[in-house]
């Protein structure tokens, strides 16, 4: 199953969501995470360096915390600029065949990489925050998804309360990930926040929210 995390708006929590969702799914299932953002946020969040080499898509992976992590590399820029959507979709589907779940982190745009990840997806997760411009972006994404006949779960990030979004394709689920400094601390250390929380906090709270998200997405 391909789970694509997408929102063309920057900084809403795509990378945070994909990293922690993949970490959570990997506890019980054969899970991979592919970083399709040339900026390599998910790669860094798993404590690895962005690859300077030019690999084909899916050409390199490393197993960390039970997640088969496909790091960002220079080749992604080539796909973004010159790649075609059809072959990118088929490569992503091919990679997914080796896993129960393939989580895809996407860049903050609707270019070749993001659109391919959107088309290849069995499930789509769209992180949103309670800001007007983010909701505007979700509305634009909704039109794109409608034209592709796809649906997305909107999960609220950086808020105590879930934002209610009820568009044609993008509909919110009742999960709100609150603001927490654990996220930036964990990224600095190169570990998923949920992993960090398990060791650092006596009464973990974020972990159960991602468990709930994982359950809703895969069912
Ligand atoms: N719930 C949260 N509480 C506090 N900080 C958060 C939370 N979620 C994300 N962040 C922080 O906000 C910043 C942006 O998050 P993230 O990188 O996941 O967003 P993104 O949508 O992937 O951004 P981009 O579009 O640039 O790829 C990061 O520094 C991250 O650590
Ligand atoms: Mg990101």
UniProtKB/TrEMBL annotation:
It holds the Pfam family AAA_31. It comes from the Archaea. Residues 2-150 form the AAA domain. PANTHER family: COBYRINIC ACID AC-DIAMIDE SYNTHASE (PTHR13696:SF99), P-LOOP CONTAINING NUCLEOSIDE TRIPHOSPHATE HYDROLASE (PTHR13696). This is AAA family ATPase. The lineage of its organism: Archaea, Thermoproteota, Thermoprotei, Sulfolobales, Sulfolobaceae.
């Amino acid at each position: 199953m391909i789970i694509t995390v997408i929102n063309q708006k920057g900084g809403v929590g795509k990378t945070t969501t994909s990293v922690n969702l993949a970490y959570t799914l990997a506890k019980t299932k054969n899970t991979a995470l592919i970083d399709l953002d040339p900026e390599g946020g998910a790669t860094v969040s798993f404590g690895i360096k962005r690859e300077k080499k030019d690999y084909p898509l899916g050409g390199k992976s490393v197993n960390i915390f039970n997640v088969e992590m496909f790091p960002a590399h220079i080749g992604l820029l080539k796909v973004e600029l010159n790649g075609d959507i059809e072959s990118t979709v088929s490569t992503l589907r091919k990679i997914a065949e080796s896993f129960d779940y393939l989580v895809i982190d996407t860049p903050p745009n609707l270019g070749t990489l993001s659109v391919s990840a959107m088309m290849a997806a069995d499930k789509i997760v769209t992180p949103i925050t309670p800001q007007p411009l983010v909701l505007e972006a979700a509305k634009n994404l909704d039109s794109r998804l409608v034209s592709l006949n796809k649906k997305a779960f909107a999960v609220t990030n950086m808020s105590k309360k879930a934002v209610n979004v009820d568009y044609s394709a993008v509909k919110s689920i009742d999960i709100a990930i609150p603001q927490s400094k654990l996220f930036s601390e964990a990224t600095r250390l190169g570990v998923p926040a949920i992993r960090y929380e398990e060791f650092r906090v006596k009464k973990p709270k974020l972990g159960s929210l991602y468990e709930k998200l994982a359950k809703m997405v895969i069912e």
